[in-house]
Amino acid sequence: MTRHLLSAADLDAATATMILDTAQEMANLAGHQVKKLPTLRGRTVVNLFYEDSTRTRISFEAAAKRLSADVINFSAKGSSVSKGESLKDTALTLQAMGADAVVVRHPAAGAPHRLAGWVDGSVLNAGDGTHEHPTQALLDAYTMRARLGRVAGLHVVIVGDVLHSRVARSNVLLLSTLGAKVTLVGPPTLLPVDIATALVPGISVSYDLDAVLPDADVVMMLRVQRERMTDSFFPSAREYARRYGLDGPRMRRLPEHALVMHPGPMNRGMEIAPEVADSARSTIVEQVANGVSVRMAVLYLLLGGKPS
Amino acid sequence: MTQYLIKGVRVLGGEPADLLLRDGVIAEVGTGLDARGAQLVDADGLVALPGLVDLHTHLREPGREDAETVETGSRAAALGGYTAVCAMANTDPVADTAGVVEQVYRLGREAGLVDVQPVGAVTVGLRGERLAELGAMASSAAAVRIFSDDGHCVADPRLMRRALEYVKAFDGVIAQHAEEPRLTEGAQMHEGEVATRLGLAGWPAVAEEAIIARDVLLAEHVDSRLHVCHVSSAGSVEILRWAKARGIRVTAEVCPHHLLLTDERATGYDPVFKVNPPLRTAADTAALRAALAEGVIDAVATDHAPHAVEDKECEWAYARPGMLGLETALSIVVEVLGPRWDLIAERMSRTPARIAGLSGHGQDLVAGAPANLTLVDPAARWTVDPAELASRSRNTPYAGMTLPARVVATFLRGAPTVLDGKALR
Ligand SMILES: [Zn+2]
To answer: Which residues fall inside 5 Å of ion ligand 1, going by CB?
Structure first.
């Protein structure tokens, strides 16, 4: 295991599989009423959140606490970080506090990479701008494996605002590493330049959602912010939903076994119809639960092996 | 005034000769020269070039003296072999009045290490709304000839047309920072594979190319001179080639970093590699090198852009764009062009001096010429250590790199500003 988890590209297939296996064990223990493991007792995990993301922060917090770590929440609101303290100065503060791991969510791509150069502890990227969100990709892979038994060989279709999506980038990298075939679908304005080759080779790109659905094992719908239309990425929410939203009729074009995933929070009626979000194919609720197990596994593997 | 006798120097890499500097000019050129009372400079193995001229320097004074001053930037320039630099107008206050350009000019004279030629802003406050008093700056003591809103593009086509026309009255030239602002809102690095991988918003080459295409047509339409700052893309080269073939009066500069470095450097998110326009691809650097050798690009300009530590030791998106350049430019150019001394003199001295209207600079080293020259050790190799640079800032993208050729001495009007690789003041 590497010292940091900055990008899904930091994980080779063996390491990613080890994380998923460990997450499975964590989930099994939780099922047996073992609420807390002593693994990280005496270790300090700092949640450093420069963006409001209660869901992700709570998920990491729960994961760290179930491993008996001391958790410090350092949120941008009401702290020195909102008063203009530089990331480097904050890093030095965390260093002085003896943080063993820093879980960082930041609006600027690459902020976790900068942080990793300034602290001795492990840095976990919990979402950096439009770059990556590796633990989201891990929990998505975990969910696929739990439902379909494998990741290798699956055809995963990722639909929507790939340009602004850290979830998409991390998923493309991790799923390819694990042997899945990935197709990205969206309006050309929301597919970044050279995306077919920029991350990994072998990615397919399509502008036609209907054409790829019959061949999909998993459809992952990305959140699309309505404000994108004011910047002319698409003309209207209605047209977007019509061309790229997943509604009932489209869902019925999927093979029987295919899953519908969404990293949340959803825009119901925009990229996903309520009928689809609430269907049996939807894994959206499981994804949240699996997030805690996967984050426990990552913290355990990054920190567990080290002397305290 | 002390005379200097430079012994055994190879002018432009030619046969060894002696140069006698007296009263600010090259008094004699020959072999076996002897001059009583002259200070000897042993230049065995060194190459003499006319003093370098930089069309694009940010000296940061007034306003950001914590990053650079006219004096520290002048020292960096002299150590880099320069005898003249054009100081960009994006200071605080902006150099958009006769008062500010005269202040910068005077500070340059007081430092006395290079001739500091102020560039005047095209528009008031660089805001792109209305023309600054270009004529007043032209007729000031600073005798401004180059006008630029550098850092910003003169994006309004009507305003650009007026500026191009207006400066004809005093043989001025508009130096355009070519960047269509609507295409680069929020842009962080070259739009391409690396930006997509890093999740950083792209700065597409077309944002530069579209403005260059528009501006060469405007320059043709009003029969004016246009200078294009820091050309960064292969597509821009093709537009310039077309414009020149058509007889349009356009000149262009390229920066050392765009000749050597690519967008791959952004991997790791160290903002020392953040610059505007951004580092582009290997295909772009290859096209720029070829264009520089061929003459489609007329000059090398540093875009020396010092920044305080806090403006670079931060997240990529929050960092200011820009790189140091004065002390490394010649070495980078030797690295990419090879020891083609006459070509280097053309691109780094004669042509930029002509574009800037600096008649005392960029002249061949013959008897009677102003004694503005630099002596280079072509065999030296040196490793860039940011802490050793004379600039007040440390944001060099070449830290740790080993580069060819080193400036040993620089003379400004017959007086040394640098000897034995050290600045004299
Ligand atoms: Zn510029």
So the answer is: B 150, 177
List strand residue ranges (DSSP E) for B130-246, in order. 146-147, 173-176, 189-190, 202-203, 226-228
Q: What is the pLDDT of residues B7-63, one digit of tens each?
A: 999 999 999 999 999 999 999 999 999 988 999 999 999 999 999 999 999 999 999
The interaxial angle of helices B234-245 and B205-222, nearest 10 deg, is 10
pLDDT tens digits along B76-95: 999 999 999 999 999 999 99
Q: What fold characterizes domain A134-283? A: Rossmann fold (3.40.50)
CA of B236 to the centre of ligand 1 (A): 15
Is the same domain home to B110 and B188? yes
Q: State the residue for tokens 């001059």.
A: B35
Distances from the Cα of A104 to the Cαs of A108, A129, B31, in angstroms?
A: 11, 11, 69
Of A114, A128, A193, the CB nearest to B196: A193
- Under CATH, which architecture does the A8-133+288-303 domain have? 3-Layer(aba) Sandwich (3.40)
Is position B261 within any domain? yes
Q: Are the Cβ atoms of A88 and B318 closer than 8 angstroms?
A: no
> What's the pLDDT at A230?
83
Domain boundary among B356, B391, B409: B356
For residues B180 and B131, state if they share a domain.
yes
CATH number of the CATH domain containing B161: 3.20.20.140
pLDDT, tens digit (0-9, with 9 covering 90-100), for A256-282: 999 999 998 899 999 999 999 999 999
- The secondary structure of residue B62, as a DSSP letter, is T
Q: Where do the domains of chain A lie?
A: 8-133+288-303, 134-283
Residue B363 lies in a domain: no
Residues B324 and B417 in one domain: no
Cα A71 to Cα A26, A68, A89, A293, B188, distances in angstroms? 19, 9, 20, 17, 34
pTM strictly above 0.90: yes
Supply the range of the domain harboring residue B22. 4-47+368-423
Q: Report whether A130 contacts A164 (CB < 8 A).
A: yes
CA of A294 to the centre of ligand 1 (A): 47
- Interface pTM, i.e. ipTM: 0.94
Count of structural domains within chain B: 2
Are residues B386 and B268 part of one domain?
Answer: no
Active site residue B342: no
- Give the end of a domain, one of B356, B376, B399: B356
Decide if B156 touches A, using CB distance below 8 A. no
Same domain assignment for residues B247 and B114: yes
The Cα B34–Cα B32 span in angstroms is: 6
B152 C-alpha to ligand 1 centroid (Å): 7
The residues, ordered by sequence, that sit 6+ positions from A301 with a Cβ below 8 Å of its Cβ are A1, A18, A19, A22
Q: What is the pLDDT of residue A78?
A: 55
Q: Note whether B42 and B74 are same-domain residues.
A: no
Strand pairing report for B52-57 and B82-87: parallel
* Identical topology for domains A8-133+288-303 and A134-283: yes
Q: What are phi and psi of B44, to 5 degrees?
A: -60, 125
**How many CB pairs below 8 A link A and B?**
72
- Helices then strands, counting H and E runs in chain B, come out as 12, 19
Q: What is the dihedral of CA B212, B215, B220, B221, to 10 degrees?
A: 150
Within this chain, do residues B72 and B218 fall inside the same structural domain, yes or no? yes
**B338 and B392 assigned to the same domain:** no
B202 and chain A: CB distance < 8 Å anywhere? yes
Mean pLDDT of chain A: 93
Q: Using CB atoms within 10 A of its CB, is residue B263 exposed (0-12), middle (13-18) or buried (19+)?
A: buried
| DSSP letters for B178-210 | ---GGGSTT--EESSHHHHHHT--EE-HHHHHH
A129/B199 CB distance under 8 A: yes
Separation CA B92–CA A250 (nearest Å) = 58
